[in-house]
Amino acid sequence: MEEVNQLTKITIAWELYEQEVPKTHIAKQLGLNRETVHLWICGIESLGLLEFLDKYTNAKRGQRVKRQIDPILKRRVWKIREREMDCCGQKIKYFLEQEYGQSPAVSKIYEILAEKYKLRSKWKKNQLRGPVPHAQKPREVIQMDSIDFGEVFAFTGVDIYSKEADVILRPSLTAKDGVIFLDTCMSRRFNGHSDLIQTDGGSEFKDEFKRKVYQYTDRFRIASPYKKNEQAYIESFNRTVRKECLGWVKYKANQIPQLTLVVNQFLDRYHYHRPHINKGMRPPLERS
């Protein structure tokens, strides 16, 4: 049981690292020494997650014959993986528990996935990591950004504590569009106020936006250039928007009404269905 728990911790540590959470924070969250987390991550970057887990297991127990995996469990894991937009092993475990009452180890889930899918990290090695904004309560820190979809621009915002988020589509990327996004998301999603609002240095967050932002926050901060980790939460959410909603397609401005329906469906699923690792595998909101 202790070894299974360690394998789960290794997998969670890697998933948090892929989300650009600093190693010190990972170690604290998992109750580990930072050097242990560092060695795990270096090993995974060198060997890949599955091979590292196998090597770790063999080092603890020696070579052994693998048990046959229940084919029904395999089908369920693959089904959830495809249904939930290629979600991670931790989330597959969550859905297995919710829907089938099964609770396999996360390492076993990745073993099953490896039979059908090519698993690898998408992130570059050895990136410099800037400071990460912290929040102890909802509405303390909201990060904002934008995503380019050709003639359509998705303005995005996320509460880094509660993980509540909003997306608004605009036909241009100007400060006026930024103000429309600010007014809309702060009134309909973030209760009209946040202690800190943070954006990057894009033109959509200058001029009128900077003059208007203090109606909704006590502090406005522009993230340091070339330090992606300062916008880690919104960057992670932006990847989710592309991966699970709008993809990497270029759209025309006249498609905004139809795309808005797609975005609203995504936000409903994101808030009430999609589990979040940092929230104990619970969605940001629950229906009353």
Strand content: 5-15%
Strand line-up in the sheet with most strands? 3-2-1-4-5
Q: How many alpha or pi helices?
A: 11
User: Termini distance?
Assistant: 37 Å
Overall body shape: globular
The main β sheet shows up as: 5 strands, mixed
Average pLDDT taken over every residue = 87
Give the low-confidence spans.
Answer: 122-130
Question: What does it look like?
Answer:
The protein is 48% helix and 11% strand. With 288 residues, the chain is α/β, with parallel strands linked by helices. It folds into two domains: 2-114, no CATH class; 141-279, Ribonuclease H-like superfamily/Ribonuclease H (Nucleotidyltransferase, domain 5, 2-Layer Sandwich), CATH 3.30.420. It has a five-stranded mixed beta sheet with strand order 3-2-1-4-5, with helices on both faces. Helix 1 (2-18) packs across helix 3 (34-47). The chain is globular. The relative contact order is 0.11.
Key terms:
288 residues; Nucleotidyltransferase, domain 5; alpha/beta; globular; 2 domains; single chain; 5-stranded mixed beta sheet
Fold topology:
Blueprint: H1 2-18, H2 23-30, H3 34-47, H4 49-61, H5 71-83, H6 89-100, H7 106-114, E1 141-148, E2 153-159, E3 165-170, H8 175-188, E4 194-199, H9 208-212, E5 217-222, H10 232-246, H11 256-272
Parallel strand pairs: 1-4, 4-5
Antiparallel strand pairs: 1-2, 2-3
Helix pairs in contact: 1-2, 1-3, 1-4, 2-3, 3-4, 5-6, 6-7, 10-11
